[in-house]
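Same chain as my last thread, 202 residues:
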Amino acid sequence: MTAPAPGTDGPSARPRTAPHYSVAPAPASPEGYVVPGMPGAPVQGYEPVEPLGPTPLATPTSPRTSRRRVTPRRRTGPAVALAVLAMLLGGLAYGCAPLRAADSLGWLAIAQAGLVALPLGLLGGRNRLLPPLGALFAAGALLLGQLTEHLRRVHADGPGPGGLLHDTLTSWRGDLRPLDAAFYAIALIGGFLLTRRTADRG
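reply #2:
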């Protein structure tokens, strides 16, 4: 008798080979087991910490609120009062200078403007009314200085029948020159610009 050929109804005499797979089968693991390092695996040595308390919610702040906290408080009233005081002091200092230096002191109108603009800008801040007030106070300091100067001259020469105040105004009007217009322009422009610039820096 001959042995049955392979593929016939009888068993084959060849040894059985391991089955081949295109994808490696997943290893058998007990139910509920997670491989370490995979998502969902417990971390060794980690203990959850309970929160100490509820986290306070951040309250939204508006731009106006934050600006009020950062920007210092402006005081318009004290600023104007100090500017008026600076105008009086500047005018008296100008008028009490030696009479022979009156022509050269006219150019110091910018100094009077700076003296007036300092309190207006630092205390008053960016107020639209303060730069025009700075211009007027600077010109007022120059006018007060010139009137004080002529008052000293009239008082030294002796007042006339019109009185001291009348003679002072008459002497001031008679002594006006085109150069005085330049002095007043310097005082007006300087008072306006210096007040605004001091407010921006403050």
